[in-house]
Amino acid sequence: MSKVLIPAQRRERIQEYLALHKIVPSAELSRLLDVSEATVRRDLEYLEMEGIVERTHGGAILSQRMRLEPEYLQRAARHVDEKRAIGIAAASLIEDGDIVFINSGTTTTQIIKHIPPEANVTIFTNNLQAALEVGEVGFELIILGGAFQSKSNSVAGRFAIEVLNQVYADKAFIGVDGISLKHGCTVPSNDEAEIICRMLERTQGIKSIVVDHSKWGVVSNFEVARVDQIHRLITDDGLDSHAREMLADRPIEVVIASRQTQET
Which of 53, 104, 161, 211 lies 20 to 30 Å from 144, alpha-carbon distance? Predict the structure, then answer.
């Protein structure tokens, strides 16, 4: 007979498992801990109240908190191939004549870099890094004014908001630091959150969130949109199957960008 674990021990085992796997079905925990699914459900309820997990239909995911905004270069070095694939996929969805909002971030930089130089489009962005990296282009690239944000190589603030208030976009491509069915799309900076919210408010057409698979289940400080307020999620093929199943029940199109189909 296996040793019976007290609640604190079970919850520690659950956290250890989630630290490795990020996501787990209740049935699997029931088997691993040799307890009923009702007991597992109570443990997950407790851990959710503590902010450690986020319960899902039939299981849980690790609730990863991101309180501080990481430096741009640190973020740029992570999941490089995935971000490039997402950028290529997102750029291919921009059509002739579109006016597009794109916010700051390493993934959104890849979108701007992969728009064909001769495209007949207008891009409004607060992403200074993209403007530096894109080189000479034929399309119209308009940088919002505002206060410089050194951690994200972007601009934000009142002047940027005033420009956005004068424009309606056909599409928006928004990079965030976390996405969760319960907590929505979140970022660590209030200044960036204000930019994103105004971009979404002023977009008349499709609103897309662009994130690599590591952002699934991450929760940061400022919510910019609920998942059901977004039309499209563009991510990479590292997104796990359970996350895909959960999103399949939502009114959101999921575009999976494969790293194997990138440009050479």
Answer: 211
